[in-house]
Automatic annotation (TrEMBL):
Its cofactor is heme. It catalyses: 2 H2O2 = O2 + 2 H2O. Keywords: Heme, Hydrogen peroxide, Iron, Metal-binding, Oxidoreductase, Peroxidase. Its EC number is 1.11.1.6. It is an enzyme of class 1 (oxidoreductase). GO terms for cellular component: cytosol. Heme binds at R69, R108, F157, R354, Y358, R365. This is Catalase. It holds the Pfam family Catalase_C. It comes from Sphingobacterium lactis.
Length: 704
C-alpha cells in the first residue's frame, strides 16, 4: 500500500491549465495590463462604466458558487484505478470487470446531513461513491459506508432528509441528528430501526475515510452474455481495516480540525500511502431470490456473509489528488442510473426512486443537461448522439443532422444492434400485477436484523451504541418522542432499551406507541406480522473489533513527545521500528524550530503541544533523556498523555521516562507500555495494531 508507482491512466488532460510562466489574460484570452486597479476618471475619481475587464472579472466572481448538494454536500475526492482480479465472465458481461482490466476511477467521500462548510467528524453516514471511466461508458457505484438505509421506499426520501436537516424555524443544529425533528420521524418509522443502530455505532465516526467499508446498499443485477441474471450486492473492503474514533474524540477533532478526514486523505496520497479497497460481491442466483427469511430487495436489510460469502473481484487504489477541488470534486456528478452493459437495476423501491432523483439533482446543480461534458464527468470513450444545445454546451456537433433515423448523416450515429455490436440492454424480466401504492409484507420485519447487528457487536461497541442513543435522545426536548423511540429499541433488544432508558430516566414501553403502529399499518395493514426465523443471529463481519493477527499500523501517526535534551538514540530506536511497519512518527516539542539532542545535533520541529492536539494522533511515545524533567513541568504534555489514555490509545514510555506516567491519571494496562516491563517497540506496535484498547473504557469506566 505504501509508495506505489502512480500508474493510473489520466482521464482527460486537455482541460488541465497550468498558469506557470503565462501572462494573465481575460476569459477571452486578452492580455491584462493591470489587475490591481479599476479604470477611473483620475486616480481619485469615480470608476468608469466602460471597464469591461473589471466587469468580466466581477461577473465571474459573482457566479462562482453553485447550489450545494442537498445531501452529501460536505465531500472529498481522489483519482485512482480499479483492477479486476477475478474471472466472473460467466456472471456478467461488464467489460471493466474482466480479469486484468485496469479502469480509471474518481471517488467522492462525504457526510450526509451537514452543509458544505460543516465538520468532517459529525456522527453521520458517509457517502462512498465511485465513478468508473470504462471503455463502455461511465459506471457510477453510488453507495455509503453503511449497508442499509433508514427507509424502504423512495417516497419517504425527502422526508427523512428534511427531518435530519437543521430545523427550519432556526436552522439548528448543523450536521447533527440529535434534535426533535429527526427522532420524531425515526420514532414513527419502525423500518428505520436497523440503520438507526448503525448510525449510533462507531461506523458513523470513522477514524479515516481510508479506514471505512463501502457498500452499494441496494441489490443490483449482473447479466451475462447469454442474458442470465444474478443478483449482486457490492462491498468495498479497506486494506487498512475498518476503524473509528471515540465520540469524545470526534467532538474535539471537530474543534481542532474540521477538515480532519479531508486532510488525512489528501496527505496520505501526497505521501505515497495510496489507500486501497478490495471490491467484493455477494452473488445470489435469480432462482434464489425468495430463499431467505428477509427480502433481498429491502434496502433496510443486509445479506449476512455467513449466508452468502463476499467474493473479492478487484482492487481499487487511490493515487492522485484533484488538481482543483471545485472543477473535480464539487462538479463530479454521480448517478446510480449510470450503468454499463452487464449491470442492471433490481426492483428495490428506494433504488428505483434514486434513478430519477440523482439525475434531476445534477441537472439543477450544474446548470442544465450538459453536465456530462464537464471534464470530470466525461466518458473516456467519447459520446455520440443527436442531443444538442442547452446551457453550457461544449461539444460541437458536426453536420446538419441532429435526429434519428436519418439518411443525410448516413444513419449515424447508429444503434449498436444494427451492426451487431455490444449495447446496453436491460435484463428481461416478467412483470405483472395491479397498479397499487402498497408495500410487500416481505418488507414488514423491522427488528430482526437490527437485533442481529446489535448482537454482533463487541461489548465495548454495544456500550458505544447505548451512549450514542443516550446522547442523541437527551437532546430531544419532547419526552413523547423519547418514549416512542425507547419503545422501538425495546423491540430490538431489552438491554439496549433499558440502558438508554436509565440514562434518560424513563422506562421503555413493552409495545410500540399507538401513533407508531398507526403509521406502520399504513404500509402493512396487518402489522405487526410474525417474522420468519432468522438464519443467523450473529455475524462476525459486522463488528469493527480487530481480530488477533489482522491489525496493521500502516500510515498511523505516532506522536513522539519530546523537548530539548531528548535522547536521539531513544528517538531513533522507536522511529526505525515504527517506520519499518509503515507508521509515521511525528516529533512534538514545546517550540517550533531547532530541537537539540542530548548527544548533540539538532532536528527541525514543526509541531508543538500548543499547535497540535492529541486527537490528531493514533499513539504516543515518550523517549528518555534530559527532556523528561522539562516534560514533568509541562501541563500541555500531561494533557496529551491523559487525553490519549482517555481515548483508549497506546502509550509507550522509554525506561527513563516511565516516571511521567505517575504524574497523570494513567493506570497501567496492556496499552500502557513501559520499557522496563518487556520489549518496548514490539509491545507498542502490537497494541497499536489493535487500533484501540477499548477494554480500558469498560474496566476503568474511562469516558471516551
Amino acid at each position: 500500500m505504501k509508495k506505489k508507482k502512480n500508474s493510473e491512466v489520466k482521464q482527460i488532460d486537455d482541460h488541465v491549465v497550468d498558469n506557470k510562466d503565462r501572462v494573465m489574460t481575460t476569459n477571452d484570452g486578452v492580455p491584462v495590463f493591470d489587475n490591481n486597479n479599476t479604470l477611473k476618471a483620475g486616480n481619485r475619481g469615480p470608476s468608469l462604466q466602460q471597464d469591461h475587464i473589471f466587469f468580466d472579472k466581477l461577473m465571474h466572481f459573482d457566479r462562482e458558487r453553485i447550489p450545494e448538494r442537498v445531501v452529501h454536500a460536505r465531500g472529498s475526492g481522489a483519482h485512482g484505478t480499479f483492477e479486476a482480479t477475478a474471472d466472473i465472465s460467466s456472471i456478467t458481461s461488464a467489460n471493466f470487470l474482466k480479469k486484468g482490466t485496469v479502469t480509471p476511477v474518481f471517488v467522492r467521500f462525504s457526510t450526509v446531513a451537514g452543509f458544505k462548510g460543516s465538520t468532517d467528524l459529525a456522527r453521520d453516514v458517509r457517502g462512498f461513491s465511485v465513478k468508473f471511466y470504462t471503455q463502455e461508458g461511465n459506471y457510477d457505484l453510488v453507495g455509503n459506508n453503511i449497508p442499509v438505509f433508514f427507509i424502504q421506499d423512495a417516497m419517504n426520501f425527502p422526508d427523512v432528509v428534511h427531518a435530519v436537516k437543521p430545523e427550519p424555524n432556526n436552522e439548528m443544529p448543523q450536521a447533527a441528528s440529535a434534535h426533535d425533528t429527526f427522532w420524531d420521524f425515526i420514532s414513527l418509522m419502525p423500518e428505520a430501526a436497523h440503520m438507526s443502530i448503525w448510525v449510533m455505532s462507531d461506523r458513523a465516526i470513522p477514524r479515516s475515510l481510508r479506514m471505512m467499508e463501502g457498500f452499494g446498499v441496494h441489490t443490483f443485477k449482473f447479466i451475462n452474455e447469454a442474458g442470465k441474471t444474478t443478483f449482486v450486492k457490492f462491498h468495498w473492503k479497506p486494506r487498512l481495516g475498518k476503524h473509528a474514533v471515540a465520540w469524545n474524540e470526534a467532538q474535539k477533532i471537530s474543534g481542532f480540525d474540521a477538515d480532519f478526514h479531508r486532510r488525512d486523505l489528501w496527505d496520505a496520497i501526497e505521501n505515497g500511502d495510496f489507500p486501497q479497497w478490495d471490491l467484493g460481491v455477494q452473488l445470489i442466483p435469480e432462482e434464489d431470490e425468495m430463499k431467505f427469511s428477509f427480502d433481498i430487495l429491502d434496502p433496510t436489510k443486509i445479506i449476512p456473509e455467513e449466508l452468502v460469502p463476499v467474493q473479492i473481484i478487484g482492487t481499487m487504489t487511490l493515487n492522485r489528488n484533484p488538481e482543483n477541488f471545485f472543477a473535480e470534486t464539487e462538479q463530479a456528478a454521480f448517478d446510480p442510473g449510470r450503468l454499463v452493459p452487464g449491470i442492471d437495476f433490481s426492483d428495490d423501491p428506494l433504488l428505483q426512486g434514486r434513478i430519477f432523483s440523482y439525475m434531476d439533482t445534477q441537472n439543477y446543480r450544474l446548470g442544465g443537461p450538459n453536465f456530462h461534458e464537464l471534464p470530470i464527468n466525461r466518458p473516456i470513450n467519447g459520446k455520440h448522439n443527436n442531443q444538442k444545445d442547452g446551457f453550457a454546451r461544449m461539444d460541437i456537433l458536426k453536420g446538419n443532422t441532429s435526429y434519428f433515423p436519418n439518411s443525410q448523416g448516413g444513419g449515424c450515429p447508429y444503434h449498436a444492434m444494427l451492426k451487431g455490436e455490444v449495447g446496453y440492454e436491460t435484463g428481461k424480466q416478467e412483470v405483472q400485477g395491479n397498479k397499487v401504492r402498497e408495500r410487500s409484507d416481505s418488507f414488514a420485519d423491522h427488528f430482526t436484523q437490527a437485533r442481529l447487528y446489535f448482537n454482533s457487536l463487541s461489548p465495548e461497541e454495544q456500550d458505544h451504541v447505548i451512549n450514542a442513543f443516550s446522547f442523541e435522545l437527551s437532546k430531544v426536548k419532547n419526552e413523547d418522542i423519547r418514549k416512542r423511540e425507547l419503545a422501538i429499541l425495546n423491540q430490538v433488544d431489552k438491554h439496549l432499551a433499558s440502558s438508554v432508558g436509565d440514562n434518560l430516566g424513563l422506562t421503555p414501553a413493552k409495545s410500540l406507541d399507538p401513533l407508531t403502529l398507526q403509521f406502520a399499518r399504513q404500509n402493512h395493514p396487518n402489522y405487526p406480522i410474525q417474522p420468519k426465523k432468522p438464519e443467523v443471529e450473529r455475524s462476525e463481519a459486522l463488528s469493527m473489533k480487530v481480530k488477533p493477527g489482522e491489525g496493521t499500523i500502516v500510515s498511523r501517526k505516532v506522536a513522539f513527545l519530546v523537548d530539548n535534551g531528548v535522547s536521539k538514540a531513544s528517538v531513533d530506536k522507536m522511529k526505525k521500528a515504527l517506520e519499518k511497519e509503515g507508521a509515521m512518527p511525528v516529533l512534538i516539542s514545546s517550540k517550533v524550530g531547532k530541537l537539540t539532542f542530548k548527544e548533540g545535533g539538532e532536528a527541525e520541529i514543526q509541531h508543538t503541544y500548543l499547535t497540535d492536539a492529541s486527537v490528531a494522533f493514533d499513539a504516543f511515545y515518550t523517549p528518555e533523556g534530559d527532556s523528561v524533567a522539562k516534560l514533568a513541568k509541562n501541563p500541555d504534555y500531561v494533557q496529551f498523555i491523559n487525553e490519549g489514555f482517555r481515548h483508549c490509545k497506546a502509550l509507550a514510555f522509554a525506561k527513563g521516562a516511565e516516571e511521567l506516567a505517575a504524574k497523570s491519571f494513567i493506570e497501567k494496562d496492556a496499552g500502557v507500555i513501559f520499557e522496563s516491563a518487556g520489549d518496548l517497540t514490539a509491545d507498542f506496535i502490537e497494541q497499536m495494531k489493535q487500533h484501540r484498547i477499548w477494554e480500558r473504557e469498560m474496566d476503568r469506566k474511562v469516558p471516551s
